[in-house]
Amino acid sequence: MGNLWQVNEESFSPNLKQIHSQETVFTIGNGYFCTRGTFEEGYPHETAATLLFGVFDSVPVAKEELANAPDWVGIHLFVNSERFRLDKGKLLAYTRSLNLQNGLLTRTVHWESPSGVRIRVNSERFASLADKHLGLIRYSVTIDESPKDLPVAISLRANFNAAQGNYNVMHWETTDQGHSADLLWLQSETRGTHVTLVQSMSFNADTTAFQKEFVDGDIEPSIRLTGALSPQESIVTEKVVVMYTSRDSEDPHKATLTHHQKMLNTVAEETNSNPHNVLVFDYQIQKQDEAWAHFWEQADIVLEGDEKAQVALRYNIYQLRINASDDDSRYSIAAKGLTGFGYRGHIFHDTEVFMLPFFTYELPHIARNLLLYRYHLLPAARKKAASNGYAGAQYPWESTLNGEETTPPSIVHPETGEVIPVLNGFIELHITSSIAHATWEYWRVTGDDEFMRDYGAELLLSTALFWDSRAEKKGQQDEYTISNVIGPDEWHEHVNNNAHTNYMARYNIRIALSVLKWLQQTAPSKANALIEQLDLTEEHLTYMRDVMEHLRFPQDPVTGLIEQFDGFFKLAKFDQEKYRGRKDSYQGILGVQEIQKYQLIKQADVLMLLTMLRQEFDYNTKKVNWDYYFPITDHDYGSSLTPALHAILGCELGHIDEAYQMFMKGALVDLENLRGNTPDGIHAACAGAVWQAAVFGFAGLSITDDGYTTQPHWPNNWQRLSFKFKCKGELISIDLKR
């Protein structure tokens, strides 16, 4: 049995796409910052990035993006003045592993310099989960052989690299830099948003034989250690970095240096060391182990009988944790988290539909903050609704810190290269009901009445008001319609009465009215205040109920088949057999306009509705719609979001083989770069869907008014599923065995 807590790389490939993909895979983080898995010594054309939670800078068109901070991981090694780097000299052996149990990234390299010196380099790196401002690297060099057994001159240069951008866009400029007896520091500011970042560094060794030198500079300040090693001798160094921004402290410079120096002094006292040359890695890794052990004690899923699935499942849970702040409700989790530049750090409905259930069941305090992010941005959502001529609150398709719409009006299609308009920000509406649904589910699972009273009720009622104003009643017909939208499918634009959009709008109104009734019973003064604030007259409430009851839902009353939108069944069928072995999505093959003529789906639409609200629909409805829509969905190159989500419905319907295939497509999407875009960052929503597939799908967990039930569905070889979750404050352990 292999180590089921490790993601391993057994050899080095110079293929640049592979390098960039692995940079994403080996990201370390703690929710405050994430750092991609680039090499300390650097590599040509690498995509180094450290992204901090909620730290943005301005960009044209897309308004703002997460700003790539000065790179803190650099340690440049020179051996007899020859630079150690994987594209130089001769690589004799290489391994790298990410320990998911404690977030430690380890790499071992056996290398021969051009002049024949053989060395071993070992690096260990982590972002502290116990101290969110802290990043550490332990970097050791051992001389194996040298020509004529002569001593080898060694120079190690630990630096901050301020010349890092988001690809070609530079966001930071150095505003100050300096050093004290122990610490070197760099102060930077974003060019457009004026966020200040201060980073401090100490760089110490396990020997006093090496000379230390501080080298100041605005672009690459560094601390250098120089000396000599004879064959079989080693040096162990530690680079310790502390980071604060002006979002954390009024004086981030003072906060950074005080924090860093205090840490050095504390460890020096406890280990009887010299505070000017203290080694802290062992002390801090112990705290790291404890913090991660606490997390995994709650969040781990034990899966016996399928080692590949077990490691992949833990990897996706790891990614969910490192990309979510523990205590900051000013920002949420982006589609790529903090792991890459894809989607610029913008927030989509990915968070509420795919990721938030994990936090609701495992880390409800983080789920609460993610929903508070949406609550804080209600004013902007109201402004968006009003600007479009509607009431209530309409959430933007993409958002950052101020809640304004940040969807770019056009993009270059990643497959076809054509410039295409992006209509999502104008007519993809269902994000509003997704947020409402997540709010309701959080309350239903956690029982957090205080949240619902003070925040959730206003959010639910405000979003419900948007839907009742967006729905239209034409002539004397006894139904309301919602026209000109993009549904979750996204390959069909300007459609009328998208089934998912309409049903979720009805659901949004229903749960809002339910919460209002609850509020009137439990907190009447709060209810009255909201009624007055939102102008919820009895006449208006009657109208909302009428919209809820008569909003069009295109379903055959006999067969139960749901039409994805008006006219979908009249579209041409598509012969997928002609495209076996394709490497592009059907939209990439056919084009943005042509694909709209066919019954081809990018991602779950009707089936996502039946999964999100699975308690609302009977078995036959789920079966007939699965049979129709599953075969016409592009599971390979459509969207990464929904393969793992399909697994939930597949399990319920007894399609265990298909469910397992979908689960693994999601679980391995980044570990194996299945879609070719992992270099842009991890698929954070997919990580959440993988957790949901395991818990709601294969374990069949369902929360009821009376407690919970499970109904396990077993893929081949699976023997056990064990996990914990929180329900109404109680920690519940589930251990299912075949």
From TrEMBL:
Q: Where is the Glycoside hydrolase family 65 N-terminal domain positioned along the sequence? A: 13-247
Swiss-Prot/TrEMBL keywords: Glycosyltransferase, Transferase
Top-level taxonomic group: Bacteria
**What InterPro entries does the record tag this protein with?**
6-hairpin_glycosidase_sf, 6hp_glycosidase-like_sf, Gal_mutarotase_sf_dom, GH65_N, Glyco_hydro_65_M, Glyco_hydro_65_N, Malt_Pase/Glycosyl_Hdrlase
Coiled coil, from the record = none
Query: Which positions fall inside the Glycoside hydrolase family 65 central catalytic domain?
Result: 314-692
Q: Which family does it belong to?
A: Belongs to the glycosyl hydrolase 65 family.
What is the protein named? Kojibiose phosphorylase
The organism of origin for this protein: Dictyobacter formicarum
Q: What is the lineage of its organism?
A: Bacteria, Bacillati, Chloroflexota, Ktedonobacteria, Ktedonobacterales
